[in-house]
User: Fold this.
Amino acid sequence: MNRADRSFALMLSFAHGLDHFTRRLIPPLIPIWAFLFGTPLWQIALIPALLLFGSAIFHIPAGIISDSRDRRYLLPFGTGLLGLSYLLFTFAAFSSFLDFTTDILGYPFNSRLLVMMLAMFLGGMGTSVLHPTGLPLLTSNISPELKGRAYGMWNSAAKFGDGLGPAVLGILLLYMDWPLIFIFFGLVHILYAIFLFAALGNYDTSPPIFSEDVALGSSNVWKSDPRVYTYPLIAVLAFISIKGVGDDGLGTFIPTFIVELYGYTFEIFGTVITSTSTASLYYAATLLSAAFFSLWCGQLVDKYDPRTVLIVFAIIGVVPIFALAFVDLSPMALLLILMLLGASIWGAAPARDALISAIAPPEMEGRTFAYLWTGALLFGSASPIIVGYVGDIGGLRTAFAIIAVFIALSALPLFLLYSKNIYLPPEP
Assistant:
C-alpha cells in the first residue's frame, strides 16, 4: 500500500476506531449504573440498545445522502454528534433537577436514566453515517487491488478502538470517576470532527453519480437479474441480522458476565484492581484479539472467497461461546477463550465488507451498506434487552448459550450464496 493510500485509510480508520472506542466505554459501566439507579439489567441495557436503534433508523437516510451529496460534510457531522451525545449523557446523569421517577408501561424509570437513553439515541444517529460514508470513501480513494487491506485497516481500527476503550477505562477508573472520562472523550470526538472536515477537502468526496433517479433509489440494478443484487442482498441481510443478535448481546454483557460469575480482583504494586476494572481488561483483550485478526483477515480476503472466510469463522465462533456458557474456567483459560471469541466473532469483518462491496454497484454502495446495517442494528438493538432479561431470570450463562445458537444459524444464508440460483458473482 503506497503512502497516499495508507494515509487516507488511516485517517478514516481512526474515525472508525474512535467511534468504537467511546461506544465500548458503556458495557463495563453497566454494573455501576445498575447499582447507581437500583434498576434491573434490562433497563440499563436500554442505554446501548437505544444507541444501536438510533443508528439503525438513520442508516438508510445516511446512505441515500452519501450516494447523492458531498460526503465531506456527513462524516464530520456524525463524528461530532456522537461527541455531543456523550456530553449530554454525562450532564443528565448528574442533574439533580431530573432526579425523579416516572412510570412507563407500569415500570418505574428514573428520569435521569431516560435522558441518558435519549443522549445515546442521538449518539446512534451520529454513528449511522460511518459505514454508509466511510466505506464508499475508501472505495473511491483506494487502489482497487488494495481494497481488502484497506477494509482490514478500517475494521482493525474499530476493534483496536473496541479493545482500547475498556482497557483505558479500566485503568482510568482507578484514579477518576467515569463522568470525567466521558467528558474528555466527547470533546476528542468534536475536535476530530473539525479535523476531518478540513482534511477531506483534499480528497474525492463526491458520490459517483448525481442523477435524480439514482438519488431517489431507482437505479436499474433493481430491474436487472435478481441474482446479481437483490437475492444476494437478502442473503447477506439475513446473515448480518441473525449474527447481529449474538454480536450485540455478547458485546454488551461480557464485562457483566465476568463480574458476576468470576469477580476477579488483583493487587499490583499495592494497587487493588477491582472486579470492574479486571472485567474491563479481560473485555479489552477480547476485542484487541479481534483487532489483530482483522488485519490478517484483510489479507485473507485479497486471496480467498469472503463467503468461505465468513462461514468458517462463524462455525469456529460457536466453540468459545459454549465454553463460557457451560465450563468453569481458570483466569488464564478465560482469557484464552475470550481471545478466541474475539478473533472468530468480530475479527472476520473485512470479509463481510468485501462481500458487500462485491455485490453493490458503485452508485449504490453507500445505500447498500445502509440497508444491511439497518437490519443488523434493528435486530442487534433488541439483543441487549433480551439478553439482560434472560440474564435477570435464568442467568447470563443461559443467555450466552442462546447466543451461540444464533451465531451458528447465521452461517446458513451464506451457504445459499454458493448457488447460482441465488448469486451471480461479478466477473474478476
